[in-house]
From TrEMBL:
Stated name of the protein: Uncharacterized protein
Species of origin: Zizania palustris
PROSITE patterns: THIOL_PROTEASE_ASN, THIOL_PROTEASE_CYS, THIOL_PROTEASE_HIS
Molecular function via GO: cysteine-type peptidase activity
Gene Ontology process terms (BP): proteolysis
Length: 371
């Protein structure tokens, strides 16, 4: 079938499904009727047994096991829908396949703001990044090749993605300022950062209950900086603040908001190091690899990640040509995605990029020597 006819069919089906109540399962526009349900039902228990063994899952009793199997079956159907709507990526069983979409959002996401709220909040604390020249930018660039990206981390069952995005951006900025890769502490921000937006009292950074990267940068400006991971290790839960100013390993000089322009995002990435960004994670629960370039994706931002580079050509056979893409470092461990990384398509001709270019901030660092 011609891919354009497939797209039209998907869009029509999505419009119909959007008019129905879908509860808490997933965004209405991503629901899609699929076939081969009988085959799926027959193979689900085998896949579930492999999933349990592979990821070391255990359940408290037979009832919990049966419930998680039912969730797993539903997620197999979701993965099939996602594969139809995002054919240039691979979707299937991941370590999150026994979680409902609501459980997944509550536990592994944690970006608290819309783009509009983000702009209101930073108006008084961050500057717009100056316009940079975009002539002569390389076709491909990856900060992992230049030493500015630390190891992939795992936020665990804590909605602290925002702190990993902020720490990763500061790790890169500190590397550019000092020539040293210092792995920094997310737990300090989880425990100590309660920075708020004065216009929205319920929008404070709240540890495992979510936050915003520009809030975190504002906190770090006020507190003096961030300790290293080894001095303030990650616990994956909310705790009492134990910040020791004498152990600061990296400090924020300033931070800026980058315009919604992919050329400016690429130029700022190269000049300032990895960038803190927001993204709509609708396809990420089932993502295995490849370049994600969905036909339909919402622009509501619910996950904080780190933009580390871009490529000029990721093979996408369904789209009939290779697609340029962004390289994103996630915080769900190396056993998710492409060894902890996610690729999403870029380019002015791409309609739906899951909001990847709409909430971007850059940070610069000053070196603070430990006493």
């Amino acid at each position: 079938m011609d891919h354009r006819l497939l797209l039209l069919g998907l869009l029509l089906s999505s419009v119909v499904m959007a008019a129905t109540a879908v509860g808490d399962e997933e965004p209405a526009l991503i629901r899609q009727v699929v076939g081969d349900e009988n085959d799926l039902e027959l193979s689900a228990e085998h896949h579930f047994a492999s999933f349990v063994q592979r990821f070391g899952k255990s359940y408290k009793d037979a009832d919990e096991h049966a419930y998680r199997l039912s969730v797993f079956k539903a997620n197999l159907r979701r993965a099939r829908r996602h594969q139809l709507l995002d054919p240039s990526a691979d979707h299937g069983v991941t370590k999150f396949s026994d979680l409902t979409p609501a459980e997944f959002r509550r536990t592994y996401l944690g970006l608290r703001k819309s783009r509009r709220s983000f702009l209101r909040e930073i108006a008084g604390s961050a500057q717009d990044a100056p316009v940079l020249p975009t002539d002569g930018l390389p076709d491909d660039f990856d900060w992992r090749d230049h030493g500015a990206v630390g190891p992939v981390k795992n936020q665990g069952s804590c909605g602290s993605c925002w702190s990993f995005s902020a720490s990763g951006a500061l790790e890169g900025a500190n590397y550019l300022a000092t020539g040293k890769m210092e792995v920094l502490s997310e737990q300090q921000m989880v425990d100590c950062d309660h920075e708020c937006d004065s216009s929205e009292p319920d929008s404070c950074d709240a540890g495992c209950n979510g936050g915003l990267m520009t809030n975190a940068f504002s906190y770090l400006l006020k507190s003096g900086g961030l300790e290293s991971e080894k001095d303030y290790p990650y616990a994956g839960r909310d705790g009492t603040c134990k910040f020791d100013k004498s152990k600061i390993a990296a400090s924020v000089q300033n931070f800026s908001v980058v315009s919604v322009d992919e050329g400016q995002i690429a130029a700022n990435l190269i000049k300032h190091g990895p960038l803190a960004i927001g993204i709509n994670a609708a396809y990420m629960q089932t993502y295995i690899g490849g370049v994600s370039c969905p036909y339909i994706c919402g622009k509501h931002l619910d996950h904080g990640v780190l933009l580390v580079g871009y490529g000029s050509a990721g093979f996408a056979p369904i789209r009939l040509k290779e697609k340029p893409y962004w390289i994103i470092k996630n915080s769900w461990g190396e056993n998710w995605g492409e060894h902890g990384y996610y690729k999403i398509c870029r380019g002015s001709n791409v309609h739906d990029k899951c909001g990847v270019d709409s909430m971007v901030s850059t940070v610069t660092a000053i070196h603070t020597s430990k006493e």
